[in-house]
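JOB MANIFEST
job_type = single_chain_structure
chain_count = 1
residues = 144
[input]
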Amino acid sequence: MTTPNVPEFLLLDGRRVDLAARRIDPWPLNLPDARAAPAGRLTRTEVAILRLLASHAPSTVSRDEMLRVLWNLSARSSRTLDTHITRLRRKLEEDPAAPRFLLTVYRVGYRLEWPRELPQADHLPRPGASNGYFGHSNSASASP
């Protein structure tokens, strides 16, 4: 599933979150880093949450909108969103209790914050991988 203006991957503090492959890898892939978490998997629901938040970044997405878009639920009917956010934070954040990327906006909703600066030249994606600095692939513009 591709959503307009949503990157194929996010770079989050030593982790490359590949939304298309539903993987979390240490970044850069060839550099050992004591802080980097081991590779991990994302569920389809977790990817849907990240895509929704990324499509609105840096704005906050209300809890009501997230429940409606992701599960067609009302805000008072479920705590499922909180459970998924907690699981995502455990996978993405160095300290899930003090998140830096998946932020709660009290009494409003959630916001995704991630650095959008260009990676260093020695940290560019491998050949054949998505080559966009912001995670966008240029496969549509590739020459035959």
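[summary]
The two ends are 24 Å apart (CA to CA).
Residues 67 and 78 are 8 Å apart (CA to CA).
exit_status = 0
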